[in-house]
Amino acid sequence: MDIIRRNRHLRTHELQQLLPGRSRQSIAKKRGVTGNTYRRPPFTQGEDEEIRRAAPTKGATAITHILPHRTPWEINKRAQQLGIKLFNYHDKPLTIIGEPLADAIRQRAREDGLSMRGLDAELNTGGYFTNCAALRVRRGSGPYMPNIRKAIEFFDAELVTGPDGTITIDWKDC
User: Fold this and answer.
1) CA-CA distance, 108 to 171, in Å (whole number)?
2) Helix (H, G, I), strand (E, B), or coil: what is residue 46?
3) pTM (predicted TM-score)
4) Which listed residue, 51, 100, 143, 146, has the most CB atoms within 10 A of its CB?
5) Distance (Å, rounded) from C-alpha 168 to C-alpha 150?
6) Which phi and psi (to 5°) does residue 151 adopt?
7) Cα–Cα distances in angstroms (integers) from residue 51 to residues 41, 76, 90, 100, in the given order
8) What is the DSSP letter of 93?
9) Cα-to-chain-centroid distance, residue 172
10) pLDDT at 62
11) To 10 degrees, what angle do helices 116-123 and 100-111 make?
């Protein structure tokens, strides 16, 4: 009991090394019955500083690589307590791929709260808006119009040809 009481900061599997011959279940039950359950050690100033430094470019999961003894949940809670906003991958600006029609559709999907994978899944376009459009631009190919037309139909928009021959999208609801 003394070992369990003094080492509340250790997890059950770590305590098992100090108590040879005891199973994890027996240690966990004894902890629960006596009220000596695992207590997370408080955050140190150094850990708080690491979270502050990493927050603009890393989320909670990435910060666990810096603080491996902390879980993403603990890091999120601590950041909230400190008033720190962690990096969110979904808040980053949308990458411009260089194909005007695909870029406009990607932007519209983002505004409507659709991810690029979600858009591709909804339209059954096989990853076109996620990455194929960008690959086509790099190769010098034009837009794949069947997928563009699917997206135009999905958003109830219309393709408009300008006087100089450029094709743009009329979203109709704007």
Assistant:
1) 9
2) helix
3) 0.54
4) 51
5) 15
6) -70, -40
7) 16, 10, 19, 39
8) P
9) 32
10) 92
11) 100
